[in-house]
Design brief:
Elements: H1 3-13, E1 26-28, E2 34-38, E3 46-50, E4 56-58, E5 72-75, E6 81-85, E7 88-93, E8 96-101, E9 110-114, E10 126-129, E11 143-146, E12 154-155, E13 164-169, E14 175-179, E15 182-189, E16 199-206, E17 222-229, E18 232-239, E19 242-249, H2 266-278, E20 281-282, E21 290-298, E22 301-309, E23 315-321, E24 326-332
Length: about 325
Amino acid sequence: MSLSHLLSYMVLLGLSCAAMARAGDAFFSKDGQSVTFVSGEHDESVLNLNLTTRNIETVSLGTAIKGQSITSLASGEDGELLFLTEKGAWVNDANGTRKLCGLGSAAHGADLSVAPATAAGVADWLFIAGDRAEKDRSAASTLHYRKPGEKEFRPVFCRRVNSVWAGAFTSDGRFFFAGESDLWEGAVDPDPVGGGVATLNGVRIAPLALKNTDCTNGGNLWVAQVMPAGSSIYVRLRGTHMGILLRVPVNPVPALDDKSGASGSLIGHYAYLAKALSAVQIIEPEGKGITASAAAETNGRELLFYRSGLGGVRYGLFIWDKASGKSEQVAMEP
């Protein structure tokens, strides 16, 4: 598909009216048999969808977060539920719900992700996106990290990229994220100059955003969620009351590798971006508005979960299968 065709589709398909949830609001279980997600109606609640029985249950979080909205969630290395509220990061497991740490340098936390053991130098670190806290306005970053055992998040230094969010790791430690509305790949260096300042290294790998300006900004779309799974990077674009799902094939060579061609020269970079755009697949062609999503590879199958408004106040829950290229509605959110 050409770039012009892709942009035309984005304009035509993005005009939906469902409310948009924050990124990092769903994940598959380790065995791929269930999906956990933040309720679309009550953001203090977390739901679990069993993909075999198609039953939906409410996850018991106790009373520790009563009255707090859940802004993001993720699965820990052992399958435990990790989530954010305005008061910090929390864990829910067999021992109940307890607070891990405060937000620290992040005034508002979202897009929670966990670095796997394969992530060089940052294994088991938590990462979030968030506005800079009032007490730390000097931190030129919207990406923040927390090492195991620390009591709060600290800023990652992000040079020459003003906005970073929606970070997500692959099982082999590659790191993809949204930077200034487009899709990037990179890595966090825990201490490149010996001063104790973690630093983001990265390069844009696909210019997926649709940017314009007018009195309504009716077609403006940007990368809101990044979901690596198998040989793909699934991306949710969002705008004001809009949402579209895309699939971008993973380049087998990491973008920071000199052999990738992602940033060696201007001409090479343009060729790299053109190749990425030519392979983009639009998954949700009706643009109904996507309010939660997650991707996973399970038993050799790439599956994409998403929640979409069906009119009124109810939401349909869908599974898209890469093998068939089709979506199936598996449940309605209660």
